[in-house]
Amino acid sequence: NAGVTQTPKFQVLKTGQSMTLQCAQDMNHNSMYWYRQDPGMGLRLIYYSASEGTTDKGEVPNGYNVSRLNKREFSLRLESAAPSQTSVYFCASTVWRGATSFFGPGTRLTVL
Amino acid sequence: KNEVEQSPQNLTAQEGEFITINCSYSVGISALHWLQQHPGGGIVSLFMLSSGKKKHGRLIATINIQEKHSSLHITASHPRDSAVYICAVLVIQGAQKLVFGQGTRLTINP
Known about the structure:
Strand content of chain A: over 45%
Number of strands of chain B: 11
Distance between the termini of chain A: 36 Å
Distance between the termini of chain B: 36 Å
Number of strands of chain A: 11
Oligomer: heterodimer
Structural class of chain B: mainly beta
Largest sheet of chain A: 7 strands, mixed
Largest sheet of chain B: 6 strands, mixed
Order of helices and strands of chain A: EEEEEEEEEEE
Strand content of chain B: over 45%
Radius of gyration of chain A: 13 Å
C-alpha cells in the first residue's frame, strides 16, 4: 500500500499561472481533504470531500477549486495563483469523518 | 482566541527526560487527535481519543473532557522524538471538522 500520494512535491509558479495538485489514496477511504500549512499557523482546511461525488468548502477555500475524480483521487486546482497561496499543501484521507487521518507527504508551493 | 491552544510552543530537553505537551480547547468536541510532524515534513497520526488515556510504546495521551484539556507525554525521550507535535480536535457543531493547534516543536538533545 502506498497510502496517500501527492504530486508534485515541489512547485514554483508565477503570479497568475494555474496548476493542479494531485492526490490519490489506495486505502478505500471515503473522505478526503486538502489542507494548507503556513508558518505560525495550524493546518487549515481548504476543501473536503466526505464521500465520492461530494465536495464542500473548508475554512479557506477562496482561490481554489477541487474535483473528486473517483473514490481514490481528489485534486486541488489553483486557477490564478497569488503569492498569498505560497504554502505547504497536504492531502489527507479518512475512512469516515473524524477517524484517524492519513496524510500525504505534502507539496511545497511557491508563488512568485 | 484560537479554539485550540498548545503549550509550550517550543520545548528543548535532554535525552531521557519526561516530556509533557499540553492542549486546551474551547469548543465541544467528539474526539481529539495527536499528530507528529517530522523535520522532513511528513505528518503521522499518533492517537485519537475521546476519553481517558491511551498508550503506545513510550507515548501516552490523556484527555479530560470536563476540563477541555489533553496532554501528550513522552517517557525516556530520545533524539528521534524531535518533531512538531500537533493537537487537533473534531468539533461537534455543524459539519464536523478538525481544528488544529499551532503545534509544539520538540527538540531532544543527546
